[in-house]
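Example record for the data management plan.
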Amino acid sequence: MNDPRYLVAGCKSWNRRVFDERLQHLPGEWHFISSQDDLSLARIEQLNPSILFFLHWSWKVPEAIFSRFECVCFHMTDVPYGRGGSPLQNLIIRGHRETRLSALRMNAAMDAGPVYLKRPLSLEGGAEEIFLRANELSADMIEEILRTHPQPVEQEGPVVVFPRRRPDESRVPSQLSLGQLHDFIRMLDADGYPTAFLDYGDYRLKLSRSSLKDGRIHADVTITLKPKDTP
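Corresponding structural encoding:
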């Protein structure tokens, strides 16, 4: 009897790292993809995986795939609260310090599928630190799913949908407290995300690596010329 096949999809470097260090060593035959072009129905049919796991994926998964194969994604909210885009930023800007990572079965509605598992996840630290923490927790949950074979359960409770944030929303708002400013900087501090910024004259000040201590914020500031099309 052939070993079961599994496919892991992730578009961030830390997704590939957890695959190389942990997931590919689990029982079965494991494959990894990192781009939208690799996620074709023809290739999925050729691999014929038992389950597809989506760790951090920036593109829509075709219905032809999730309707024929078991597709599990990981969403950083206690669904049905927080369905939708930019969950980490939307949680932090609403004052949350902790959340739950939900393993969902994909269906046609965004983040509305039945739930396999939920596990607590701290929202302390910068965005990339949180993503790394969620990445390791996702690997733990994949191991648990393969070990225990939980049946997904339909979501219950009030639905709250988060809007996907736009790059221009990374401009630091006025009248923030120090704590709110620290949270605003850290929630955007990850590779591939639009950094918190302020404009001063002809310059753009990009803020990262925020640390709040003793009533003061220490942060890295990168100064560039402001984009020409900026009012």
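Summary line stored alongside the record: The chain has a mean pLDDT of 95.
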